[in-house]
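Many introductory courses stop at the sequence. We go one step further.
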Amino acid sequence: MIYLDSFSFPDSDREFDFFLSIQRNCYNSYYPFKILSQKELSILNFEPITILYGGNGSGKTTALNVISEKLNLRRDSRFNQSNFFPNYIDLCDYSLARELPSHSRVITSDDVFDYMLNVRMMNEGIDGKREELFEDYLDAKYSSFQFTSINDYEKLKKVNQARSKTQSKYIRNNLVDNIREHSNGENAFLYFMEKIEENGLYLLDEPENSLSPERQLEFVKFIEDSVRFFGCQFIISTHSPFLLAMRDAKIYDLDETPVRSKPWTSLKNVQVYHAFFEKHRKEF
């Protein structure tokens, strides 16, 4: 499914015209001006899966942020905008193939890390609650409690529960939403699955940062299935070879000037991996 058909950025001539129109000269940076235009990137045409590849400073995250702000997509974590960001957004344009679903969103590394941090904080609370339940279990199991009135009913239930269950089962039954059982990678993967719904446009900024190689392969299958069966479109910034190898993905190489689409096997990052494993082939 394609929702966003194309997106255009101001070229160097339009940027120059903008600079002539303003009188401000007290800024050291005009970000995001002069980032993508230096790459001679003026338009992106999208497929169901489109990947923006490039190293640090290549502009792939900038492009995602510009697209998300122009489309007014939902996001959890905000990002630092310069004084000129709104001006730059005004100079951008886009074309839709069909109406953009309202639940479309951008998901960044900060979103995932914030989520995992919240999980960790919740787990710390769970640890404290677990210790309380240990004491509660022992107190209930070995107490000499006598039922005297209806007001003691809740206490009676607790005593009966403690005496009929093992300590671990008592703790598990009384400790609701114990999310400690998931690793950071598992929690990150669950975050993506929670946020990505059917029939939506999703911009993902380096999703591999929180995923192991094994999880990345699982995530690739999830992305491909979401496109094939559930009407989703993805625009992803990444330099992970696992994501770059996704079936039928259109890849823009932002390390090149001018930016152009390339097969994943010709990308520099992938070539480095290939050379490394070829060097060590006999060790496998």
